[in-house]
Amino acid sequence: MNNRVVITGAGIWSCIGNDLETVRQSLYNGKSGVGLSPERIEYGYRSGLSGVVEQPVITKQMVDRHTRVGMPEQTQYAYMAACQAFNQAGADVDYLSKNECGCIFGSDSSAKPVIEIHKTMEAEHDTAMLGYGMVFQSMNSTITMNLSTIFHLRGVNFTVSAACASGSHSIGLGYMMIQQGQQEMILCGGAQETNQYSMLSFDAIGAFSVRMDQPQKASRPFDRDRDGLVPSGGAAALVLESYDHAVKRGANILAEVVGYGFSGNGAEISKPCDHGCELAMSRALQNACLTPNDIDYINAHATSTPQGDMYEAIAIDRLFGGSKAWISSTKSMTGHECWMAGASEIVYSLIMMKNNFVAPNINFENPDEYSQKLKIATQTIETQVDTIISNSFGFGGTNSALVIKKIAK
Amino acid sequence: MTLKEIEATVKQFLVEELEIEEGKITLEARLKEDMGIDSLDLVDIVVIVDKIFGIRIKAEDMKGIVTLNDFCNYIAEHQNQ
């Protein structure tokens, strides 16, 4: 069995918008969602730069108290994105109560609850003072355990932890399970906390830009003068289902997932590798039965770090050099949405596919010797986007690439 | 706090923090059967009571508390200890 896999719903909660239309406008207009957080500097960060993400308000009418107290920030973001995705897919509470749907999300931390637990224990020396919700907030699978409970999902249910490729792998795994006939419908996605506890250790290794006098110029993937990434977050959710299933229930198909490729660098923990990036991309193309010249748009992983962008540029040039594909990193606007990025960048790419444009790689003012070889969109490009590849790479050398294609009506 | 003040404070947190319907909250009401307070709610009630009244309820003490009246009396008895 080799089922076709389609996307029928998408949801987003991000620093460039909390709904598809607002995000479309931000992407089209090259609007940055980055700001400066003085609290981070006060707390001891080297960089106070961050994507500015609105905190959702989840009421008792939306989610009962028992569940709500177990939802940390990233799970709240994921819930908001999931509501949008299920709504667009036409899978309401009644549908989900009668039909099996799975849930796979990418996430690799839940820092705030863990730190709050520690603070309470230091002060009280009594686990009874932790309350009921902290266990469900602090576990790494907090998102999938909560969403599966809230939406009564009875299919596959787990969280993927693969650093900054987590969201991408969640979609890749969902795609494989539906393709193999093990599931008909899966909610996939990624979510990332933005609280001040969440990014301390990244700041410690000097991963962040310190261009704090110009926050919206700080994330500048592929630009010669980039000096690090800008942390960001939120959540993205996608409803994946088999083509036959979507057609049978009359769902509106947004696009088809046609390829997933992955690789491990097997090298240094924090150093990217052009060969690993290239292998993930080439496997995704091979899986999709496509060639580099079939791709209209490359949503690069490029986070604005000197090394990461360089190795990705080398890999893209080697595989796609001379091809027609436009390239941009939407992280130039969003900052690096980390665990969420692989999923949100599929949502951003879907928006571009639907609206026939390529979002700009803002702040790309001067190329370096590697990025000068790439066909980077410095401005919004009005063009038909039928087939895209989206890259995600993470610490430890985990690489993922997804190929998404517009479906013939 | 007087017993009346304790009762008012407890009713307030049951509505605001535990989200129990106001109509279900009477002194005679049984915590579990009538107000729907389950073992998970009790975990949070222990924390709330500690914050508001400075009383750390022991798990074994909860076994003897059936109604809201029992609960308020327990707080009144322990508040100054």
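Chain A touches chain B through eleven residues (CB under 8 Å).
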